[in-house]
Amino acid sequence: MTFVYLLVFGFAATAVLGLITSWIDRKVTARVQYRVGPPFLQPFIDIVKLLGKETLIPAGASKGTFLIAPVIGISGVIAVATLLWVNQFFSEGFMGDWIVTIYLLAIPSLSIILGGFASRNPLASLGASREMKLVIAYELPFILAALVPVINAHSIRLSVIIDSQAGGVFAGSLSGILALIVAILCVQAKLALVPFDIPEAETEIVGGALIEYSGPGLAIFRLMKNMLFFTLPFFLIILFFGGLRLNGINILWTVLEYVGIVAIITVIRNTNPRVRIDQAVRFFWGPMTLIAIVAVVLALKGL
Amino acid sequence: MSLKLKALLKSPWVFHLSTGSCNNCDIEILDCLTPRFDIERFGMLLVGSIKHADVLLVTGSCNRMSVERLKVLYEQVPKPCLVVAIGTCAGSRGIFKDSYNCPVPLDKIIPVDVYIPGCPPKPEAMIAGVVKLIEKVGGSK
User: Fold this and answer.
1) Which residues of B touch A34 (CB under 8 A)?
2) Torsion angle defined by CA atoms of residues A237, A220, B6 and A52, in that order, rounded to the nearest 10 degrees
3) Which of A42, A46, A53 lies at the smallest CB-CB distance from B78?
4) A42:B43 CB<8 A
5) A25 interfacial to chain B (CB closer than 8 Å)
6) What is the mean pLDDT of each run of 10 residues along chain B (141 residues)?
């Protein structure tokens, strides 16, 4: 049964929804810039194309690490997506799966750091070191923001967090709203989208950590990012909107919440310039951590 | 046609390489990405790293210094890949035909799939050239 969860929900459903999300992102970006944008199947075609290309390993690179890094990343995403799907629809989960989710969500960034350093390219190393700094910057406010639903629900089980929002969602309270704002900006950094795309910075360090990846390795990294683009909004919906509710009119609400979060992320991405790494660290450790702490204190007061 | 090739023609990511051009062709390539032409409709993206590219757009007259780099870069494109020569310089060396600095034309150095003449070619000409390339590789319709 675990196998079915992993393959059908963790991998297949997450990948399809993630690729669709990435199409929404590209299409909205194109419309913001008065362009037409790619056709619906474009993300799928890109992945198929990359899987059919040649894999080049740069001379002097650490071959094993270079090839295993994308696999580590995608297995992290599959594991976390499975955990979320299972908690949402099938079982009660286990004590502390919130902590496991937070840990597993750090693995994709870790795999990018590994791959970047393994590829023996100065720009890739630069990208990987920036990614490392960015992880250090956003993890603290992200964990603080994700702590607010835990305090409200008095439990670190995701299923209890979902169930305790049956009466009213946490995003309805003041602490929930503040935590949601912080969490969305941290998701932006986790996905490495434009104000915080410092590790990739196409125009500056030409793709950053992924510069040396070609063919299947790049395909897996792209798929990983797209799956993360579904998984992170899904995690936010579980934490702040009571999970995916598929009964009656609530389907519409769920779709609206999901598309809303994705649209906010895309619009932030399209209306901001890239910041420097020191500005990003200052932003996350300064205002974002402060807002997150205020949200935690408000949640402890029961607001 | 194999799935591999079909997918390649549906999402050709381009990398543009100037081998000593006057930059005019490069500017016209960037015009293809603007809202008026928007080649992302056909799945084309301009990528920054040669390792991500499927199509190599070469501009310029291949001078002595850049030929070395051109060969290294061509070896680094993951195969299968296609090469497009953009502009008169890349196609036939143009007015630099007798120059001491441009001894060999592009198609004697690496295999070229399609030539787009013009100085610089219009964005429409480039799109027409790429359509011809896709028809040639994918079998004519």
Assistant:
1) 35
2) -170
3) A53
4) yes
5) no
6) 78 86 87 85 85 88 87 86 88 84 85 88 88 78 47
CB of B138 closer than 8 Å to CB of B1: yes
What separation in angstroms does the CA of A117 have from each of A125, A192, A200, B133?
A: 5, 18, 14, 38
- On the question of pLDDT at A6 being above 80, the answer is no
Spatial separation of the C-alpha atoms in residues A110 and B2, rounded to whole Å = 36
> What value of ipTM does the predicted structure carry?
0.84
Cα separation of the two ends of chain A: 41
Task: Specify whether the CB–CB gap between A117 and A124 falls below 8 A.
Answer: yes
Domain-wise residue ranges, chain B: 18-137
Helix ranges restricted to H, chain A: 2-4, 14-32, 42-51, 63-89, 97-105, 107-118, 122-153, 158-163, 174-190, 202-205, 216-241, 250-270, 277-283, 289-301
Per the CB < 8 Å rule, is B79 touching A54?
A: yes
What is the DSSP code (8-state) at residue A167? S
Give the nearest chain A residue to B81 (CA atoms).
A53
Of the candidates A15, A20, A84, the residue with the CA atom closest to the CA atom of residue A255: A20
Q: In a mutagenesis test of the A interface, which of B40, B79, B81, B137 is the best target, namely the one with the most A β-carbons within 10 Å?
A: B40
Structure confidence at residue B140 (pLDDT): 53
Q: What is the pLDDT of residues A66-117, one digit of tens each?
A: 889 999 999 999 999 988 888 887 777 778 888 998 999 999 999 999 988 8
How many other β-carbons are positioned within 10 Å of the β-carbon of residue A171? 19
Is it true that domain B18-137 has CATH number 3.40.50.12280? Answer: yes
